[in-house]
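Usage

Read records sequentially. Each one opens with the input sequence:
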Amino acid sequence: MKNWNLVAVLGCVAGGVASWPCAALPDESALTIYSSQEPGAISPDFYRPVPGGAVPPAASVPGYALVRQDRDVQLSQGHSTLRFTDVAGLIDPTTVSFAVPASPGVHVLEQNFQYDLVSTPKLLLRYLDKPITVERTVGSGTDKVTGTLLSAADGLVLRASDGTVYALNNYSAVKFPELPGGLITQPTLVWELDSSVGGTQRARVTYQTGGITWWADYNAVYGEGRNGAGQLDLSAWVSIINQSGATYKDAHLKLVAGEVNRVQPVPRMAKNMEMMAVTAVRADTGFVEKPFDEFHLYTLGRTTTLPNNSTKQLELFPAARQIPARRLLIYDALGSPSFEEPYTERNPGFADNTKVATYLEFRNDAASGIGVPLPAGRVRVARLDGADGSPEFIGEDAIDHTPKDSTVKLKLGNAFDVTGERRQVDYRIDTRARWVDEDIEITIHNHKAQSVEVQVREPMYRWSNWQLVSSSPQFHKDSAQLIHFDVTVPKDGTAQVRYKVHYSW
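and closes with the structure output:
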């Protein structure tokens, strides 16, 4: 009996023996979600539920999805019309594709997206010069007025059969004889088909829709290990917003990491759509990664339901424990100024920074306990309070798409007890010989009860051709126009950096 049932189903899908009963297969959905949001740019206020059920405007959701839906449909041989409901309200009609994979003899002659959804104003406009019944509250009872609708612009104007005209500004209900043609209750795809087969067929519909996006959120807890070495516990979650106008029940979910260019309508600026993704582990429940073209494709190992007007969170990867990490203090007085020609003014033209920034750095590799691609997102960092062991928030930063075997550096804020100052000790210029000599002195002040290590960063911003004549301590060259010095500052003390640089052009 089981074999006969299997043959009957296969025959049904392929348009086989018409007398065999066809067992309907459950609908199946799959989504690949793309996001155009900047890392960490979505405020919690955007997706936080509010009283009354208000949700963010779907058009403002920075992303889109590629949707695939497989359903059993009833076809007639020859020319027929097929309606497909329960599709996203923000569908892009130009991306719709319809196919019956098992029956190549099904051809699409026309396809339409109908989205003229029924509403009270639209019904009133359709019933101008037609009879309707209006209910209104009179005292503790209800009164009915039946007549021809003359106007719905400012309240309702009806003319009764005896010629009496009623102007109704307040009413409790309106009764219409029927739903007029052209209005529908939900967005609907309509195809005009020419089919060589009939009966129950398994159809596949794909389209793109707006109003849906996702991003990554990371939570890190930092603590001091043995011998002052730092350790980090890192967990991650995916947040998905669905405002597309449709619910995707038991959907197969895919996410992609990379940057794919997408044409944007004028006057909106063209922008790369950043497609974010998750990685790793547990094929039965979590996400599994594989290379796909020039990107990374990640598939959730189970189905999940994405209700309309909802925010869902899924685990990005299992928490990584005891990741080696270190704290950095960086003094960058000038930032990254850039000029298209040699800069010969004595002063840079902007105030020097006196704050020393604090960073947290770790390696994204297998030896550290991670070693997976990290999609762009916000990283929130807490530190354990030794007094009671509770985690206290110490800062957050956003990361871009970060491949494995790379270094992650998070800016947490500015140090309270460590400051810096930069001053120009000497300046000499010869415009004919086309050179500038400059002596710089940088002082780091440490008000802590213990010594600190500070990295002092200096851009060689006046011109690309430069040479350090002298320096104390020794400098390290990071790039063509950036150097740094490693300085140990004693407790309640100061340390200085002094260098002389020669520019020529």
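Summary fields computed downstream for this record:
- Residues 2-13 form the longest helix (12 residues).
- DSSP finds three helices and 29 strands in the chain.
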